[in-house]
Each structure stands twice: as structure tokens, then as C-alpha cells.
Design brief:
The protein has four domains: about 1-45 and about 270-415, no CATH class; about 55-265, no CATH class; about 425-455 and about 650-789, no CATH class; about 470-640, no CATH class. The chain is built from 25 helices and 26 strands.
Length: about 800
């Protein structure tokens, strides 16, 4: 019997080549897109979840209380890891890791390169599953001068991991370190990316502020014992910092808590102390899109199968007359759907393998299907079964329910219920398509908004250099000589890149401040000509060498002025970290973080030391290329032991919105495919309607009806469905995109014309699809039409 069913299914596929091809194409597109999304989701869920000790690994986080709000972050004191290990028996291992990516100069013989790495605690390799190619977890970072390097670094300088062990490497032309371990290159599923690791004690000796309990910066990771009670430890950690922050006053409060290490990547956002999302929102979003695309493909299949059902009605009638049970008929039609689904899956897999390189480039991932893993085959099997059963269920139930007597008498008529169901499927398809079209437009406008928004400073023609070596040590000489280079306009420096200022403090005082309120201020140290370099407007003046007291004076932004409350701020007193000074200027608010965040109160202080800072160089418009060429030549002479490397500020700004850019691009593709697959379903329904109304069309033509009137008659019913879908989808799209835009402090506006344009696009595409079948039916010879029944 099964063999017989397979033969019948295959004959139907061959007999109706065009409809079979459309069915298979629609399913293949839906399955290919869904499979790509599922592979992406699987990769996202694996990030930081591959460690053997994963369930025992936690990030130590802080809740800080300012001005009636809770600020949550992962920056902690540099001494915290060792203290937690001493104080809590539940903590088996603990290690700090620097929160910044250190780009240091490595020198071995005549090989000089910049490498990226971190400082970590000695327990690091005991906690995380990082394969060691040479060395042991116990000795890898046991001494202050120990250095662990990646396979790539070992092969670059020594040819092999084994040859690197015990060798000496000079870093930043200051100190020699001994290679004590070589680890495998970090996997793509790790958020911690580094090519070398240095001992934590070495970091503490370089940065004295990390030994102070009231200074945050590093991250702290702990590994709990298998039998540890996490809830009990959480309760003990909450008040832990009170005895260490005694110098900050009784009103200052920090609460520690643990976040599972594997959750940090997806659940990184907190709002007023509560977890509020993160990348998990994109995982959910695209998970829903994958389901939508599969549903649209299945609905397309249903409509096309129903459109051809009249031609199989006699087959059903004959089978029922000779004794076929309904369950067997249902099984037959579902089996045919599964056969088509399997064929579609083969095409979908081929498409996935072809598209995957471009998909990886777009998303910045290295996804590859793993045929050796059971999960890969389970995904394929589940997708095939679900798609085949869902797609074939309605045609199977519908056809198997036909009355054999009526079918064999030739009096088959489809009821209003069946018609309404099919129309409902079309409406549902276009509702989903409309949601994707509107989503595409809003995401595009938001990405364009953040890319073109005036940030309050000019980010064009701005170059960032590191202050390594002679650049930082002899900054004044460097600055004076660089200013003589053609194309160079201004030179200054600041603690961090202007696109990501992250240092903040509550240690700010002024006359009249409410002693019961703590206000969080962002702060940055800069050099002379900072405002000139960034082209930021100021009321008052910039720091100047003509004023010897500027080393204790401050610039503030308008957001800070609003919190401080001075009406005439210039010359007014301000104290930070117990260091009294005066406000010499108020700068216009400018964005120094992503537009997800509102502009925070900012204090700018003058710092004479350029070491460890970001050098800012503004070039003349149109002369950046020339300035870079001369700058590189100069730096190779002035700073010969450090490789020349630079960044553009505008490119660093664009990186802040990489996720939004990727989401926008993917949504474009998915919206196009959703519309395309939906139109295949509409094509099937229009073919079905034209087939059902063949005699009516013949009569109308015989009575003199024009082709235009018949096309209008056949098209208007479908256009009504599309208009209904637009009416349903518009409020849903408005709500969904309003929620998405809530994640931005500065955002584009939702306008009525977006929905009107999206609706117009849907109507035009739908009309073009339906009119093909309508014109074909309208042009049919009326004699043939009347003979058809």
C-alpha cells in the first residue's frame, strides 16, 4: 500500500509540474530561511556555554544606588576576587579580568607586533575550559612575570607552542615576561577574546587605583563548589561591600549579586536593578520570524493544494466507493505533503550551504552545519515533520471529507466555510508580511537616524592613536611636530574614545548639594585643545596653558549643570574626589555613549600625563589620506619600536550599532521572501477561484464584458483581503516597533506614511500577482469556458 501511495504521489507531482514546482519552491525558501535562523540561534545559545564547569561559573555584578535609581554593571574592585575566595567557602576559585582590551607591543628579536590580551587571576585556567597546548593550569599564571599566549602568537614568534615555552618576550619595550603556557586560540563562541594573558599581580603593580576598594574597573568571575547553595551565597553577598566602602559615606550603597556566566551574553541589559533583556530579544525576534516564514510557506502549500483539489475529487470519490477509510486518505495526502517537503528540504539544504558564507559575513559569525552532531539531524527531522504535517493537514482533511456520491455525480461545490478558511489564510499571510515590511522600514530609519544624528561633536576626519612608547612619554614634542605635518589641524588626547566614555563617580560635591542624594557623573581626563579637536561648543573657555590653576579646574556639560543647579556656573566651586576647583566652562551636551543611553552628567578634567590615553588627531577635510601617510612616516621615525596603528572615530561609532545594522539587513531579506512566498499562495488561490468561476467568466464574456471588467471582478475580492490584512497588521506593527524603539533614548518617530507605504507595497505586489491569473482567465475563449462545465 505504501508503495502504491508513493507511486500516486510521484505521478501527481509529475502531472502537475508547474504547481509542484511552486509548492516545492515555496517550502524550500521557507525552510532554508528558517534553517539559517535556527543555526544562528543555536550559535547564539552556545556563546560562553561550552565550559565544563559552566553551571558553577558566575559573574559578580554590582547594584549601585544613585539619585533614587539603581545602576547595574559588571565593574568591580580589583581586590574583590581574592577577598571573596578568602571570605566564602562556597567559592572554589575566583579570578579578576580586566574590562578593557590591552593592545601591547610584543618584541622577539626583529619581530615586533601589537597583540591583544588581558590580565587575569591565577585561577583562570582552573575555572574555564581553555585547552592548554603547553603548560598546566596550576603553573600557567602562578608568578607575576608569567605570560600565557595563544597558539597564533606562539606560531608567529616561535614556530610552535612547544618551542615557545620558557622563552622570554619583551612587552612595550619595558619588561621581559616568561612564556609559561600556550593555550589554543579562543573559539568563536567565547565573548572573552584575547591572544595573551598576564598575571593579575602585574596589573595591580601597574595600576595603583585597582588596589582601592572605592575604585571599580575590572570584572570578577567566581567558580562555586558543586555543593554550594547559590541562594544563601547571594544573600551574604548583598551587604558584603559595606565594610569595605566605609570612606564613601553612609548614604553610598553597593549590593553584590551573581549572574550565571553563560547568561551574561544574552541577558546583558538591566533597568533599575531588574534584568531587562539584551541579545536574547534578537534571538526571540528571529525565532518568531523563522516560525512566521515556515507558516507562510505552509499556508502557501495549503492554498495551492486546495486550488488543485477539484481535479483530485473524483480520485477521492472512487477510493471511498471501493472502501477506503478516511484515515487512509488523510495518511495518503499527508504522505504526499511529506514527500514534497523532503524534496524541498534537499533544495533548502543546498541553498543553505550556498548562502552560508554570505550569511556569516553579514552576521559576523562562523556558523557551519555539523552533520556529525545529532542535534543537526534532529532539527532537520523536526522541521520536515512539522512542515509536512502542517502543510498537508488541511488539504488532507478537506479532500478526505468530500461526499463520494456528490463527487461522482459531478455536483461538487465548495461551501462558504472552506472559502472563508482559505481567505483567512491569505489574510494571515499578508498580516505577517506587513509586519516584516513595516519592521524593515522602521529599523532602516532608526539605523539611518543614529548614523546621521548630530552627536554634538564632529566625528568626521578624527583619528585615534595609542600613546604607547615615545608618543606618550614625549607627548609635547610629538604634538608640536605632528601639528607641522600637512593636513593636520589639531592634536589632543583623552582617557578613552569619544564614542564610549565609561568612567563614572559619585564623589562630586558643591555648595548647596543635598547631602542625602548621590548623583552619578561620568568623567574623563583630557589634554589641552580637547574641545578644539572635537569641535565642541563651550560657554566660558577651554583649558589653557595660560592658566596655571586649570589642573584643578573643571569643564561640565549642560546635563551636569542641570543637576548641579548653578545659574551662573562660570567660576563657581566644584569638588571631585576631595580636590576643589572651579568650573571654567560649560560645554554643549554631546553623545559619548550609544544612543540607547540618554546623555549623562559629564565632568571634564585636565590631566598632564598622556601615557595610556587615546591621542586625537583632527585632519583637514579632504586631506585625511595625505595626513595619514605623512603621520605614518613620522611615527615610524619618532616611535620606531611601536607598530603604527590607528582608528577612525566615525568607524568606531558605527560599531556601536553593528547589531542594529545586521538586524536591518536580515529583516530586509526576510520581508522580501515573506512577500514572495505569500504571493505564491495568492497565486494559488487566484488560480483556484478562476477555475471555479470558469463558466461565469464565459457567460460574462458572451454577454459583452470587457477584459478589464473581468480582471477587476476577479481581483477585487483578493485586494479586499489584502486591505483587511493591512488594517489588522498596522496597529500590531505600530505596537511592536514602538516597543523596539523604547530601547533607544534617542529615536526616529513612527509616522503614518510608513504604514501607508507598506500597505501600498503589499497592494501593488498582490495586484500584480492576482492580475496574472485574472488576465489569463479573462482572455480565455468563452466557448471553451462554457464547454468546461
Amino acid at each position: 500500500m505504501l508503495r502504491n501511495y508513493l507511486k500516486i504521489a510521484w505521478r501527481n507531482i509529475i502531472r502537475n509540474k508547474a504547481f509542484s514546482a511552486i509548492n516545492i519552491l515555496g517550502l524550500a525558501l521557507g525552510m532554508a530561511c528558517s534553517l539559517l535562523i535556527f543555526l544562528w540561534i543555536q550559535d547564539e545559545l552556545r556563546v560562553d556555554n561550552y565550559h565544563a564547569n559552566g553551571p558553577q561559573l558566575y559573574n559578580v555584578m554590582e547594584h549601585q544606588f544613585y539619585d533614587g535609581k539603581i545602576v547595574t554593571h559588571g565593574a568591580t574592585p580589583g581586590l574583590l576576587a581574592d577577598e571573596l575566595k578568602k571570605q566564602f567557602p562556597e567559592v572554589q576559585y575566583a579570578a579578576g579580568i580586566t574590562g578593557w582590551d590591552a593592545r601591547l607591543t610584543f618584541t622577539v628579536g626583529d619581530k615586533v607586533n601589537k597583540e591583544s590580551g588581558r590580565w587575569v587571576g591565577a585561577d583562570w585556567f582552573k575555572m574555564f575550559s581553555i585547552p592548554l597546548l603547553a603548560g598546566t593550569p596550576q603553573t600557567a599564571l602562578a608568578e607575576p612575570n608569567n605570560l600565557a599566549i595563544s597558539r597564533k602568537v606562539a606560531e608567529t614568534y616561535y614556530g610552535s607552542p612547544q618551542a615557545a615555552i620558557g622563552k622570554s618576550m619583551r612587552i612595550d619595550n619595558e619588561k621581559d615576561y616568561r612564556v609559561s603556557a600556550v593555550f589554543d586560540d579562543m573559539p568563536e563562541q567565547s565573548t572573552d577574546k584575547y591572544d595573551f594573558l598576564l598575571n593579575w599581580q602585574d596589573c595591580l603593580s601597574r595600576n595603583s587605583w585597582m588596589k582601592e576598594w572605592d575604585s571599580n574597573g575590572p570584572r570578577t568571575r567566581v567558580m562555586l563548589r558543586p555543593d554550594a547553595n547559590v541562594a544563601s551565597l547571594q544573600a551574604k553577598l548583598k551587604p558584603f561591600m559595606k565594610k569595605y566602602n566605609t570612606g564613601l559615606g553612609p548614604k553610598f550603597n553597593i549590593e553584590l549579586f551573581l549572574q550565571p556566566y553563560g547568561d551574561a551574553y544574552l541577558y546583558s541589559s538591566f533597568e533599575n536593578g531588574q534584568q531587562s533583556g539584551g541579545r536574547i530579544e534578537y534571538v526571540r525576534l528571529f525565532g518568531i520570524v523563522a516560525v512566521f516564514l515556515l507558516l507562510i510557506a505552509c499556508i502557501n502549500f495549503m492554498n495551492l493544494a486546495t486550488a488543485r483539489s477539484a481535479r483530485r475529487a473524483r480520485e477521492v470519490g472512487v477510493r471511498k466507493v471501493v472502501g477506503a477509510m478516511r484515515s487512509l486518505l488523510v495518511g495518503q495526502f499527508v504522505g504526499e505533503a511529506l514527500m514534497l517537503t523532503v524534496l524541498a528540504l534537499v533544495i533548502a539544504l543546498a541553498a543553505v550551504f550556498l548562502i552560508l558564507p554570505g550569511f556569516n559575513t553579514l552576521t559576523g559569525k562562523h556558523i557551519s552545519p555539523q552533520p556529525t552532531q545529532a542535534s543537526f539531524w534532529l532539527i532537520l527531522l523536526g522541521m520536515t515533520l512539522i512542515t509536512g504535517v502542517v502543510a498537508g493537514s488541511y488539504p488532507a482533511l478537506f479532500l478526505s471529507s468530500l461526499n463520494p456520491v456528490r463527487v461522482l455525480k459531478g455536483s461538487l461545490k465548495f461551501g462558504s466555510g472552506a472559502r472563508l478558511f482559505r481567505q483567512g489564510l491569505v489574510v494571515f499571510q499578508f498580516v505577517l508580511s506587513m509586519l516584516l515590511i513595516v519592521g524593515t522600514m522602521v529599523v532602516y530609519r532608526q539605523v539611518n537616524y543614529v548614523q546621521t544624528k548630530n552627536l554634538g561633536y564632529d566625528r568626521e576626519n578624527l583619528i585615534l592613536l595609542s600613546s604607547d612608547g615615545e608618543v606618550g612619554a614625549k607627548y609635547e614634542t610629538f604634538k608640536s611636530e605632528v601639528l607641522q605635518l600637512p593636513g593636520v589641524q589639531t592634536v589632543s588626547f583623552m582617557d578613552e574614545s569619544p564614542t564610549g566614555l565609561g568612567n563614572n563617580t559619585g564623589g562630586v560635591e558643591w555648595p548647596g548639594k543635598d547631602p542625602n542624594v548621590d548623583i552619578l557623573f561620568t568623567h574623563v581626563g583630557v589634554g589641552y585643545d580637547f574641545l578644539k579637536a572635537l569641535k565642541i561648543k563651550v560657554e566660558g573657555r577651554d583649558f589653557s596653558k595660560e592658566f596655571g590653576t586649570d589642573s584643578s579646574n573643571y569643564l561640565i556639560n549642560k546635563a551636569a549643570l542641570q543637576r548641579i543647579g548653578y545659574k551662573n556656573p562660570i567660576g563657581q566651586p566644584l569638588t571631585m574626589w576631595g580636590k576643589p576647583g572651579k568650573i571654567v566652562g560649560v560645554v554643549d551636551d554631546f553623545h559619548f555613549q550609544s544612543l540607547h543611553e540618554s546623555i549623562q552628567p559629564l565632568i571634564v578634567r585636565l590631566t598632564p600625563n598622556a601615557m595610556g590615553k587615546s591621542i586625537i588627531i583632527r585632519t583637514q577635510p579632504g586631506q585625511t589620506k595625505q595626513a595619514l601617510a605623512t603621520l605614518e612616516t613620522f611615527c615610524k621615525t619618532f616611535n620606531p619600536k611601536v607598530p603604527f596603528a590607528y582608528k577612525f572615530v566615525d568607524e568606531e561609532y558605527q560599531k556601536l550599532y553593528k547589531s542594529e545594522t545586521v538586524v536591518g539587513s536580515l529583516t530586509n531579506y526576510f520581508a522580501f521572501l515573506a512577500i514572495f512566498i505569500s504571493c505564491l499562495g495568492l497565486f494559488g488561490l487566484s488560480a483556484f477561484t478562476a477555475e471555479q468561476r470558469t463558466k461565469e467568466i464565459g457567460v460574462r464574456k458572451a454577454l459583452g464584458a470587457s477584459v478589464r471588467s473581468i480582471v477587476g471582478l476577479l481581483s477585487q475580492d483578493f485586494l479586499k483581503l489584502v486591505v483587511l490584512a493591512i488594517v489588522i497588521a498596522s496597529p500590531l506593527a505600530w505596537y511592536a516597533m514602538s516597543q523596539w524603539l523604547e530601547g533607544y533614548a534617542y529615536k526616529t518617530e513612527l509616522s503614518w506614511w510608513m504604514f501607508a507605504l507598506a500597505g501600498s507595497i503589499a497592494i501593488v505586489i498582490a495586484f500584480a500577482t492576482v492580475s496574472f491569473q485574472s488576465i489569463k482567465a479573462a482572455l480565455m475563449n468563452p466557448i471553451r469556458s462554457l464547454r468546461s462545465e
